[in-house]
Task: inverse folding
């Protein structure tokens, strides 16, 4: 073999080895790139998972804080509403008390009471009428008009009257206090005396 042929064979062998080395390097680089890509993807995925967990925890904490705040605001608003309602009810009781006291001082009150007593007397066998101690000044007028015995009521009945049978076993309460309770006014603790 001549030097020239040997030179071509060596060149061919060198080119073949260079191509093989180059192919192996490309393959190794490609594997390294894939491994690096997988490693980076895993790290990114782990970081995303951590971020999602932190976001979820933060979101739950924010939701708890918002719900706590909303509950507090709702409680405060409900308290304000209850206080306002109680003020209106107190004012209403005061207005009713004042109006009732004013009404019990009029002739219309005495006439109305007598008419109502007569109406009840015709339907039942009552013989005694009890009125508020402050209404005892009307007792003669009531007795004369109804021919019933008039007594002072032992309890604060605001106005109106209570009718009793002779043996006091049957009682009919037509007091303002009872009538107010029947329509939903709680008169306990209300300052009814003027």
Result:
């Amino acid at each position: 073999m001549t030097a020239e042929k040997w030179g071509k064979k060596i060149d061919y062998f060198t080119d073949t080895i260079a191509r093989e080395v180059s192919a192996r390097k490309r393959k190794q680089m490609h594997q390294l790139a894939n491994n690096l890509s997988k490693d980076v993807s895993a790290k990114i995925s782990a970081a995303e998972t951590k971020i999602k967990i932190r976001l979820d925890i933060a979101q739950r904490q924010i939701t708890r804080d918002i719900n706590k705040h909303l509950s507090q605001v709702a409680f405060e608003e409900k308290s304000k509403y209850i206080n306002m309602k109680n003020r209106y009810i107190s004012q209403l009781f005061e207005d009713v008390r004042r109006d009732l006291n004013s009404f019990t001082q009029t002739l219309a009150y005495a006439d109305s009471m007598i008419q109502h007593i007569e109406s009840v007397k015709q339907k039942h066998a009552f013989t005694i009428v009890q009125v508020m101690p402050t209404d005892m000044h009307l007792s003669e007028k009531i007795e004369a008009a109804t021919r019933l015995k008039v007594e002072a009521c032992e309890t604060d009945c605001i106005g109106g009257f209570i009718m009793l049978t002779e043996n006091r076993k049957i009682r009919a309460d037509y007091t303002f206090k009872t009538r107010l309770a029947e329509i939903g006014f709680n008169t306990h603790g209300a300052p009814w005396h003027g």
In short: The domain at 107-182 is CATH 3.30.2320.30 (hypothetical protein PF0899 fold). Residues 189-194 have pLDDT under 50 and may be disordered.
